[in-house]
Amino acid sequence: MKRSIAASLGLSIALLMSACAPSDDAPDPGTEGNGETEEGNGEEGAAGEECAEDVTLRVWSWRTEDATAYNEIFSVFEEEHPCITVDFQAFVNTEYNQILQTGLTGSDGPDVAQVRTYGQLQPLIEGENIVALDEIVPAVLDFPESILAGAMSVEDGQVYGVPFASQTLQMYYNVRIFDELGLEEPTTWEEFLAVNEAVADEGITPLSVGGLDAWMMPIVHDTLAAPRYGASEFEEAVLAGETDFTDDDYVASLQVLLDVEEYMPQDVVGVSYTDSQMLFATEQAAMFPGGSFELAFFQNENPDLELGVFQVPPAPGSPIDHPVTPAWADGNWGLSANSAHPEEAETLIQWLATTEFGQMMANDIKQFSPIPGVTFEDPLMQEMWDLYEENPTPYLLLVHFRYGDPTGTDIIGDRVQALFLGDTDPAAVAQDLQDGVSQWFEPGQ
After folding, report:
1. Which of 5, 29, 153, 247 is the most exposed place for a label (fewest CB within 10 A)?
2. Where would one find the signal peptide in this protein (predicted)?
3. What distance in Å separates the CA atoms of residue 127 and residue 74, rounded to the nearest whole number?
4. What is the Cα–Cα distance from 260 to 371, expressed in whole angstroms?
5. Does a structural domain hold residue 155?
C-alpha cells in the first residue's frame, strides 16, 4: 500500500595504486611573479619568504551540502600555500550550470570550478571557458582512461578537468527496520517484493522516492531496473545501432517502475527529493534508491542511522541473471580561461590531483575519489565499491546520452513523471526517448 508522506513527515573505474603528485612546474608561492604583483605587503610565504601578493582564488561548486567540509579541506591547501586564500562558494545544484556559464564569461567568475562530465562538459570546452590541462596537470594523465572519458573533449581529445569523484547507484536500507521485521537483503526479485510488502504491512514507507525533482527519475530507474534492460549488454547494442530504446527489454524496464510504485510515497510526483531524503533519514522509510553521494548526508543528518546497501535483483524476464551497480564520473575541477590569477589557479588545480586531496574527499565528503592511491576507510563505502567492482555497468543515459539536446536524462526525467501521473505508458516513454536522442545521436560513432 502507498504511504502518505504528509502523514509520515512532520563506467568501469579502476583505482591505480600509484600516487599522483603536483607538477614540477607548479609556481613557488613564496616567489615573485605569481599573478598580478603588489609590492611590499609583507606577507610571509613558504620558508619565510615574502609573498609578492596575497591572492584570493574563487572556487565554485554545486555541492551546497559539502560547503563546511570543503572549507576545511581548502584550509589544508592554504596552510601549505600561505600566499593563497581560497574563497569557496556553493550554489544550488539545479541552478549551477547556468550560473557557471555566466560566471566563466565575466570578470567575477571562478578561478577554479567544479564542472560537469561527458556531454555537459563539452559546451564549456567549445566556448573556450576552461583550458586544457594535459600540460598544466600532467598527473591527470595517470588516471584510468575510463574516468578520463568524462573529462575529455570529443573534438581534440585533450583533458579539460581533474576528475574529483565517481558515483555508484544502489539501494540503501535501514538496518534497524530490517532487523526488527526479521528481513534480510533480497537476492531475488520475489524476495525484493516480499521485503516491500512486509515493510508496508507495518505502516512504514518501503521505498523513499521523490518524483517532484525530475533529475532523480533516471537514477531511480537505473537503480531498480538496469538489469531488466540488459545493463552493459544493452549499452553495447544501443551504441552500435543493433537496437534502440524502443527495445522490448527497455520498455519492460520502465514497467518495473510502475510495478513498484505502490511501495513509494502516495502521490510520488508531489514528493520532493529533499522530502524523500528526510523520510529515509528520519527512519520513516525503510529503503532509498540513490547514489553514493547520499551517504555523507544521511550520516550527518542522523548519526544513529544504521545503513546497509544492496543491489536490486533482476526483475523477471531480465536478459542478464545478476544484479548490477550503475556508476559514472560525477564531476571535474576546471581551470577558468579568464582567471585573473592563472599561476596560482594552476597551483591549486595541481593540488586537486594529489592523493592528499583525494583522501580527504574520501574521508571527509565520502566521495569515491578516482585519484590513484586513495583508499576508502568507511566500511559502507568500501562495500559499495566492492559491489560495483563485482558487477559494474554505466549509468547509461548520463554517460552516453548527454552530448546533445534534448539529453536522455532530461527526457526520462520528464516522461517518468508523466508515467507516474498516468499520462503515458512505458512504450510511449521509450519512444519519446528514442525520438529525442535521435535528433543528435548517431549509432556507431
Report:
1. 153
2. 1-26
3. 28
4. 38
5. yes
